[in-house]
Amino acid sequence: VKEELAMSLKRNFTTAILFLAFSAKSFAQVTDYPHIPFLPWFGAGSLDVCEKDGFHHYILYYVWGGTVTQISDIGTPYLCDCKTKGVNIPESAAAPVELGANTCVTVGIGGEDLTIPSIFSPGQRNEPGGFPGGGLWYGPRPWAMPLTGVTEDRARFATSASASPPYAGTVPFRQFGLPPLYSGTDPKISLQCNSALNPTVFGVNHDDAVVHRDNMCTGERLAEIAVPTRPQQVRLTPDGLWAIVTSFDNGITFIDTSTNTAAKVIRTDSNINPGGLAISPDGSYALVTSLGQPLMLVLDIAKQEIAGQIPLGRNFPQSVRLSPDATLAWVTYPFDSVVEVIDILTGIPVRGIPVGTPSDIALNTTGTVAYIASGGAPGSVLVVDTKTYTVTKTIPAGAGATDLLLSSDDRILTVNNYFGDSITVIDTATLSGQTIPVSGAPRGAVLVPLQ
Amino acid sequence: VYQNLIRAAVGLSAAAALWAQPAIYPHGVVNAASLLSPGLPGSAIAQGSAFTIYGAGIGPATGVQVSSFPLATTLSGVSIAAVQGDTTINVLPLYVRQDQINALMPSNAPLGWVSLRITYNNAKSNPSPVFVVRDSPGIYTFTGTGLGPGAMQIINSDGSLPLNSNQASAKPGQSVQLYLTGLGPISAPDNQPPPAGNLSTSVEVWVGGVLATVAYSGRSPCCSGLDQIVFTVPANSPPGCWVPVQIRTSKANISNSVSMAINTSGGPCSDPANPLSSTIVNGGTMGSLSLTRTTIHQDVGVNAPVDLAGDSLWYSANKLTANPFAFRPFASAPPPGTCAVYAGIGDYWASGKIGDATVATSLDTGKQFTITGPGGPRAVTLTNASAPVGSYIPLYSLPSLLFLGPGNFTISGGGGADVGAVNLALTVPAPFTWTNRDQITKVDRTQPLTLTWSGTSGQAIQIVGENSDLPTNSSALFNCLVPAGATSFTVPPQVLAALPGTRSSSLNSTGVIFVMSSTPGSFSVPGLNTAFASAVYSNGKTVILQ
After folding, report:
1. What is the value of pTM for the model shown?
2. Cis, peptide link before residue B70, omega less than 30° from 0
3. ipTM higher than 0.85?
4. What are B367-416's pLDDT values in tens digits?
5. Residues of A with CB below 8 A from B396's CB?
6. How far is B198 from chain A (nearest CA, A)?
7. H-type helices in B276-435, by residue range?
8. A365 vs B512: CB contact, 8 Å cut-off?
9. CB contact under 8 A, B514 and A11
10. How far apart are CA A249 and CA A227, in angstroms?
11. Read out DSSP for B75-86?
12. CB-based contact B471 A326, cutoff 8 Å
């Protein structure tokens, strides 16, 4: 009986400490596994698996103009010996190509501008004729492209290429307390565009006053929807039912994504120039900055009407981003060189952050860190602790840093440097960036696929 | 929200820049007792309750506390307003300091979202959104974290009121008074001493999962916003040093989960199911080592279900100091058959940090270890007390390279600066079956959740559920210990209710449940008073918490 009791106690005790071990292990190790969004149109990515020290690592390739510009380890804190950069891959390459010794196995090859080559001419410099976001740009140019048709996998990616074949797919899991993937071999995997997902992309053609929708797998132009002239931004509602488009020339368009038609166009007063656009996480409302007026419009998305205005303290608000919990709106004022954080409940500025020519903002998933693109020359990205609103680091970027896109696992921040003909890719774990020359003036951002 | 926004915002003149002014931190307004961060169940602020504001420059450098009634609306230059539309309510400050304010939300505060704003020496802070409800209980804790031993006094027949601690356990059948805030508004003026008497708010108290009889639930007449519940420790409540205690008001609003010490004979607590408790309570050195196989069936937010697996080694050791209110999450385990909840700020999966007020020093166990099993030896290096050993993802034709299959393993290491060399054997059991795993995807948090399994003879079972609400950067986790030999367990709804619900976008939530088995081993190591080992099989799946 005593022995049984002793064993029982041991078992019970082991139960007691079991989670002690589990929790510490898993909590210490977890790196939210790759859920990589479609990357900005300056360079799509392709996903790869390499092996180092017996562990698999997912590697994301950034591609621009037929050149692999960046290779990032997106899945684990370990780095492979496969950091080959600047490898020229023929745009005409039709099959996966080995990058050679000391490189990862390549599973996808990116072309330039990838999904939508027909509406963007790589290398074409669109000279600005006015203030950023003001709409005085020349030449056909997509500005913003949210995706549809990609399910909300925690771990996902979508890539595309003008080279054949383009790629889109998902990594359908997130890493809950699992060690890094392990392998003793070097698998050569091949991913195909997942046509079942039917991933599509919206883009805004600012100069031709159209919004287009393209199939990411085939590059097929699915629709062109006329909108009020000089469209600025497009965002998808969380349910994916509506694409909302702002047009500088006094218009806000609701596009029915099931029919690719403009179901409703709201005409604003002539002194209101819709620009920046942020949709609340619950899809109930949207905020729209007016580039010519110190205010934000509040859109009732269900009613598709303007519900009111929020007065702002400054003129020429440009971009607006909502904090993940939708309590704060971050607004950029490039002419005043300040970013203001607005309390949504009251419309009162919570804080102002001096930033030279701020253009865009990105917030991490938990809203604890903000990144602000400063579009001076040279440009930079400011890292802000949102608890204290202090700038904890300034990361150099290229001239004219404009759009920011943070991967949905918060690991990779990409920056368009419009005037610098470059992009900057920032590893948010180390807060180090690499600026990579590209052809053409990168501009525009793509949203993470919404649900 | 936007309607409130518009209503509040229209007419506001362009506000001046405020960045040199007092600052309320984001998510910095919490229940003064539970400290549950916004986004978690129980995080709303109740009318007539004490709450805490965290910030910078929001009060004097040295803390100042109110000392007499009537309470004033200004304390040492600090005043606080709660605004909803055209309604403004003055909040009553109770304690003010440059980085923290404790205050009383007036009983007549408007329900719903209000905007809180501090004025200190005529400088206004940023507004901060606060959700006000009628009642929302938060239990005070001796750790000051909202976790661990609750603030309770044992009501002895001789009239003495000792604090419940690991040195002074309550006996079943004894009356205990518990201190909390958030039972709801009172009709008397909030700036005067509150009247004694039961409030109309319905109250339920669970002690080790057993409903207790409540004799009193109302204000403590000493102090504004301080509530008191007197309950009887149920005769069938389980003994232990950390018996979970939870409160629910109005059949809907759950409190933080705290603990109390219960012993049939009173005095120091005894926790036979957890030999670690002796070291935690009395101080000393302890270590634990485990070989763990973690599997997870992911079927939420994915195109198709996928089963992942990974193997790892975990080894850590700590030195603890004796404390009558000592508490360490997980190690201060609840009694078998009960569940504890740990909730707080941060993404638990990403940070691995759960509030822990116990003074502990990490000990160096060494980093290099060799694991030898059926597949031969494998050298591993610990990083943050853990080392991956193998994994498998059934995608892209990747081979399975798991290492910890069923069988006998030895673990050896040369030791570190604080802890000596280790050499022990562990038997990894065959995986067990979570028989109703695939039927559990959507979890109704208002209903009991029963899990069943088979193939765990001789093993100890533990159930862990977690959900992080990423937009609010908050997490909650329950930890249930299963009685020996059981092949099923029901997680009660009051435990499930403490976890945040899954958002419509699963990208914003991380709901997951694990059923975990362990097979014990043992080892002795120079430098450790207590050392335990186990082989663990963790069987998990993703869930939607509704």
Report:
1. 0.81
2. yes
3. no
4. 999 999 998 999 999 988 888 888 776 765 566 778 898 999 999 999 99
5. 49, 187, 189, 191
6. 35
7. 276-282, 348-351
8. no
9. no
10. 10
11. ETTEEEEEEETT
12. yes
